Amino acid sequence: MSAGQEYPTLPEGLQPMDDQVAGHAFFDTADSVGLLKSSDDASILKPAGKLLCGLREIKFYEQIQAATTEPDLVPLRDIIPQYLGHMKLPVAGKTYEFIKLSDLTHGMLEPCIMDVKIGCRTWDPQASEEKRKAEESKYQACKQNLGFCIPGFQVYSIANGRRMRYGKDYGKKLTEVTVKDAFRKFLNADSGLCRQLLMQFLSDLWTIQKWARTQTTFRLYSSSVLLVYDARRLKPVLQYQSKSLSSSSSKLTASCNTGSGPLTGTGTSSTSSSPIGGPSSSPGTPTTGGDIEPLQHYFKIQRSHSAFNNYEEDMKAIRENYVFMRDNLVGSYETKVWACARMIDFAHAFPAEEATVDTNYLHGVDCLVKIFEDFLRDCELENSPKAGVP
Length: 390
Description:
- The strands form 3 sheets. This protein has a 5-stranded antiparallel β-sheet with strand order 1-2-3-5-4, with helices on one face. A 5-stranded antiparallel β-sheet has the order 8-7-6-10-11. Strands 9-12 form a two-stranded antiparallel ribbon.
- The chain is about 40% helix and about 20% strand.
- It is of the alpha+beta class and about 400 residues long.
- It has helices spanning about 50-65, 130-135, 140-145, 170, 180-185, 195-215, 230-260, 295-305, 310-330, 360-385, and strands spanning about 15, 35-40, 45, 85-90, 95-100, 110-120, 150-155, 165, 220, 225-230, 340-345, 350.
């Protein structure tokens, strides 16, 4: 809501969600209704929108909630917000249908939120020709090359202490190249890429990717992946990461100056060298004691992304080792998850007419995962002790 506009008349305990980054918000048009936030519990109320779209989204959530053994449905519970029902409420004298969902930002002091709309095609089979052409013309550079676009995001900047908001006008200008700058803004990368933040996002993104690679039940149009983290929790983790890097660099410099250790190339240590010059370990095997070897984990991630290797087995190993990797990447400072990625917006979820993978959705998810894997590699290179050694 812009300055000077009054809040609409709402039921007690509800207020407009100030952190909404995409979709219709209050006062976008004369009678538009946006997300509502409950002060009574950790939930939000999403307007069900147009009649058919609202009914379709409610049916989607209820279908997932009722699932018991269906392999395409049950896994979705871990990668969508919790569905808490639907209800009709009066807003500014009119009655609207709302879908009640868990609030992914609950408890966050500085919630950073990004909406990533997935798919080259964002119009559903029932869209009019006018709607199809309008959707085709929006976010073309990103959608055609990457299979996704960014309608909006907000970030609490660690550098300047302010909340920065970027809307659809910013997103429409993004290209295959500049979209990475948008992600870096969102990740507060000017203060340093954070291993723990990237690993938390990738853990969820890999789960979404795994589901998208196998499911044949749905065709998702104009659905999004919502990325959420707390900048207040990011700050001390970056500080810890910086101190650890400084300490490791000092030790490595001292080792190189004395000519000892395997990194000099003349030592007699039994530790073998990895392809990048650091200590090696068995793929997927955590190191015990000392600093974790994050690049070893990165190479395992890359193998899991390759179609020429056993993706499912590698994915299983990565998931089993995730908690260990996350905790060791930040030491003992904080282990509670404070970032997540969730699938949202199912008003245009249609049943698949053929038992095939939704390639439109999968392409966008694959490209999104690849960008975050590349950021993880950048992070490991930036934070490698060798990077600071002359």
